[in-house]
Each structure stands twice: as structure tokens, then as C-alpha cells.
Amino acid sequence: MFINDCLISFIAVSCLKLLFLPLYKSTDFEVHRNWMAITFEKPFKEWYLEETSQWTLDYPPFFAWFEYLLAFAAKYFDANMLKISNLNYSSLQTVFFMRLSVIISDIVYCYGVNRIFQLIKSKKGKDKDPWLSAEVILAMLLLWNPGLLLVDHIHFQYNGFLNGFLFLSIADMLQGNYVRSAFWFSVLLNLKHIYLYLAPAYFVFLLKNYCFKNGKFFDLNSFSVERFLKLGAVGIATVLVSFGPFIYLGQLNQVLSRLFPVQRGLTHSYWAPNVWALYNFADRILSFIAYRLKIYSPKELQTCSTKGLVQECEHAILPTISSNISLVFTLISLLPMIWLVWKKPGTPKVFLNSIILCSFGTFLFGYHVHEKAILLIILPLTISAVLHKEEVGIYAFLSILGHFSLFPLLHEEGETLLKVFLLLLHAVYMFSSLGQLHNFKQQHSLLSKVELSYLGGLVLLQLFYSFGSKLSNLETKLPFLPLMLISTYCALGVLYIWIKYCFLILPIQSTNMFKVKKK
Q: Which of 191, 24, 162 is CA-nearest to residue 102?
């Protein structure tokens, strides 16, 4: 049963989401409408073959079945939305149903938050002011997360629904219910494969702390084959339920080609603020210098990396990064996480730190990373920051920066004040609540002067994005310039905070807030 404080917060934010119904919606709205139509009109053997629309089904089978279930309710609102031939169909009934489906599916997210809410509440004493308790602050920061409000309820996606399963897995891991945690995570992977970003952390942590009974790698005497097989059975059984029908039909390669389309290129149309955004920017600077020095001709320097296209691109000056090169860098970036899990005891804090480190590495160095993947770092870091004072500054910096980096997804002028207001509201509550929770003498002391100055630069970026590029006529001459500057500037901050987080987490002795019992 939901705790009252958590439920109240969920109801309040759901009312706010209802106000977003008529706002801007991205192409993802049509993507999910088309997926509902595919799963409703076609037998499942044709789901991953259908290509009437360019927005073909490219999520794992569990999510396809989720769309199938939604379709049964959708037909009572407007059956025309379930026709594959009705491309870009968006009647008022369709918009209402689609928006409502995201809001209702967030019940899973609320339930996941509530699991962690109850866990923290049970380990804490009674607070004088319950609204300043750790569990209530956590619920407010997670349920009112501005990134999820912008991406899910305006831009349009189902990230809250998906992260609900992640939080269920995290809650069970914090309690030492390792097998059940692995089950929820396996279900999540078969809903959306982007969560493979976290898989290395789960694998390494479970291998050491569950399969090796004494928590020491390579001590074969303590290795439990039974536990290893139990985890393996959970993962294999989930995959077989999900992919089994398509394996039987001989469509596994077809499904995988939809899930992992390498031809989409190194970076997304709007670069995620990671290392490859910095690499692309450096290539553009070098190509400009080469052009001014007449080393190369304009034709030789042409590249699609700043045209907002989703495709493979050749860099003009620097070596082109392939998916294999990106994979190598990603694997190297996981070394801090592996070292942490290897050296430290298997506490809940170490687990949280490991998935955050894993998220950082895969976001910064992964191939064709979506800008929305920054939430895979911010959401687990929210839990860690509420529980551990030393991580508050990291969270505060990344939360403001990461959520700001999502602003260009809502590119219409009408949403500017709304997204700025949501971020400011989040920042004010975050600084005040966490400052009081962890007894910071001054709220601004969470961040250094340099960090505050850097975040101040976001104001100038937003002004240039909203007004400067238009007034200077750069919007027509260099239409991608505002996006490139935002992505590059934010990438510097994400890279900085990852390095700072590594130095903060790796040397310290982990503490255990919860008493873990292996089950």
C-alpha cells in the first residue's frame, strides 16, 4: 500500500501533467501511435517486418506487447488511430488517450519510488518535520523530476513507466533480494534495451556479492554454482519469453537489426552532451581553420555532422569514429566501476555508485547515445544524494546541467517559460531541501564558485538560443550552431562531473545504510 506522502505527491504531479495535454508533441508521439497500430492490426510474426511508416518498431518484444495492450483501450477512444495507413494521425481523442496512457503508466514509476520510500522510512527515526525527512525529499525529487515531465509528458515517451521497473530492481538490490532484483532488471531489458547501459554494473556486482559467497573474486572455493545458475535461469527465462516466439519464427536477426541499427551514426541529430559531441565540435573547429588557411577545399570539408541528420557521417579532419572504436572506449570507461565493486564491500552504497559510474561511462562514450539517456545517471544519483551528504554537490550540478541539456527537445518558443520554470522550481527545492537535510550551513556551499559560474553560463546559452541567434540572423546561416553550442558546453560539464565523481567515490570507504541479508 502506498505511503500517504508519496501518494499525495504523485496525485499532485499527475494533475500538473494533465495541463500538458495540448502542448507540443514530438515525432515520438507518431512513433508510439504507429507501434500501437502495428501490434493491433498485424499478427506478431509481422511486427518487426512492417515498414509502412518510417517509424518501424525498434523496441524489444515486451514493449511491443505493452503497445498491444494499450491498443485494446485505444479503440474505445478513436479506432482510426489503430490503422497503420493513417500516418501522422492525431485527432483530439488520440492525443487525449496517448497523453493519458503515459500518465497512467507512471503508476509503475510511483510504485518503484514508493518501494525505496518505504525502505528509507523504515531505516530512519521519526523526524520532527516529516516534510523534511529523507524519504519525502526523495519522493518529491523523483516524482517531480523536470526531465521526466519534459521528455514524457510534453515531448512524449514512457520513461517513467520504464524507470519504475528500474527502481523496483534497485529496491530489491538494496534489501539483498538479489534474484528478484535480477528478475526486474531482466524484464526492464526486454522492455527497452537502452538499459543495457547498466547491465555491466549489475553483472559485476551480482557476480562478486552473490555468486561468490565470501564476496571475493576468483576464490573458487566460495563460488556457488547454484546461485550462478539461479541468476542465469532468471535472465534466460525472461529472454526466452520475450524473444522465444521470434526465435521460433527465424526472425531473431531481423529483430536485432531493428534494435541495434548501427547505420544511425555516432551521434544523434541533436548531439547528446558527451565526449563525441566534443569530438565533433573539435572537428568543426579544425575544418574551419583548414578552410581559412586554404589547406582543404570547401567540398573536401563537407560533413553531415552538423545538419541534424540521423545517419553515418565522416569527420572532415579527425579520424571517423566507428561503432567498434566507441565500444572500446566505453569498455575502458567501465574500469572505475569494476575497480570499485572489486575493492569495496558489497553494500547498497557501492551498488548505487556502481550503476551511476556505469551510466556515466556508457553515456559519455557510447555509440549513438540519445540526449535523454542523461536521466539514467540523474535518477539513481538522486537516491544516492539523498542518502549520502558527500554526493549532494555532484547531484546538484549534474541535475541542473543535465536537465538543461534536454531543453532543445522542446524547440517551440511557447514552451520556453515552462521548461525554465520547471528547472528553477526543481533547483530551488533541491538546494533548500538537501541543504537542510544534510545540514549545510549555506545552500550555495553545495557547489564551488567555479561550478556556480559555469552553471551561470547556461543562462547566456539559453538567451542566445532563444533570442541571439535570431537577432544576429545566424539562425538562417548556421541553423545548427545554437544546438552545437549547448551540446558542447554541457558536454564539458558532464565530463568534468564524471571525473570529479570518480575521484570522490573510488578512494573512500563505503558505508552501509541498510543491513543486507543475501537471499
A: 162
